[in-house]
Design a protein that fits this description.
Layout: H1 6-24, H2 31-34, H3 37-53, E1 57-59, H4 75-83, E2 88-91, E3 94-98, H5 99-111, H6 116-139, H7 168-184, E4 191-194, E5 198-201, H8 213-237, H9 248-253
Antiparallel strand pairs: 1-3, 2-3, 4-5
Helix pairs in contact: 1-3, 7-8
């Protein structure tokens, strides 16, 4: 890192002196006027501007300069919500994040072998899947207060017992067949498995046009069926299948 020149140091000292002057005013002014709220706010805004110009704070769309795997959009909101990133401030419509903490976060992600952009996709994929599974249940919640509906006269004594749950063995056999298909067609090239039980299509936007339609359909169907089967197994057994996408023979070699 380049050392600051004497000229740069003097320039910043002059700036800080100017900030203090705005904050305190002159000694001839009454004490109440020297430390007014307006002066404090103005000095704080000027100090933020100086910190931004020095590069100590990073705007949302520049986070990927310090976390290489970050997305151009939405990363700031994600790290605040999911990582509890708290060293930031809002100026106008823009958020600014502390560069030192961004670099520390990047190092920790690297040590954990996490691609941030891909992790954001993973969290979104899980949320969308859970939303689709639980959508019907959410729609059945009763609203408080006045009813917004009226049952017709014939809506009475119409019930049904729940269908019997499939056995865990049937579901595990389905998952076993999916695993065999995964290895037989080398789907690892197009599908990622996270947490040993959640499947996602790999991001191949720039080459998607050149993938055979039947292969694309197979991968899309496999991901949906695998996640569906794992969810069903969890409902029946309270546990999910563990799938390591490496053949047993290859694991022995490792």
């Amino acid at each position: 890192m380049d050392q600051p020149t004497l000229e740069k140091i003097m320039e910043e000292l002059v700036f800080i002196k100017r900030l203090l002057s705005k904050l305190t005013g002159t000694s001839e002014l009454p004490q109440s006027e020297r430390f007014s709220l307006e002066a404090v706010d103005k000095a704080a805004i000027d100090f933020q501007a100086m910190s931004i110009s020095r590069g100590e704070w990073v705007e949302d769309n520049s986070i990927n300069k310090y976390i290489k795997s970050a997305k151009y959009y939405g990363t700031g909101n994600f790290i605040r919500e999911h990582f509890g990133f708290s060293n930031y401030f809002k100026r106008g419509r823009s958020y600014y994040y502390n560069k030192t903490d961004l670099i520390a976060l990047s190092k920790e992600l690297k040590e954990s072998n996490v691609d941030l952009g891909r992790y954001m996709d993973y969290v979104e994929s899980q949320a969308n899947f859970k939303k689709s599974v639980g959508e019907a249940l959410l729609n059945t919640k009763e609203k408080k207060g006045r009813k917004n509906f009226k049952l017709p006269p014939d809506a009475k004594d119409i019930t049904s017992k729940p269908a019997p749950l499939p056995s865990a063995e049937v579901i595990r056999n389905d998952i076993k067949a999916l695993k065999e298909e995964f290895f037989e067609h080398n789907l690892a090239e197009y599908i990622d498995i996270y947490g040993s039980n959640h499947a996602m299509l790999k991001f191949v936007y720039h080459f998607e046009k050149y993938i055979k339609p039947e292969l694309k359909r197979r991968c899309t169907k496999w991901v949906a069926n695998f996640n569906y089967a794992n969810n069903a197994l969890e409902l029946v057994t309270k546990k999910r299948e563990v799938f390591v996408p490496i053949k047993e023979d290859d694991m022995i070699l490792l």
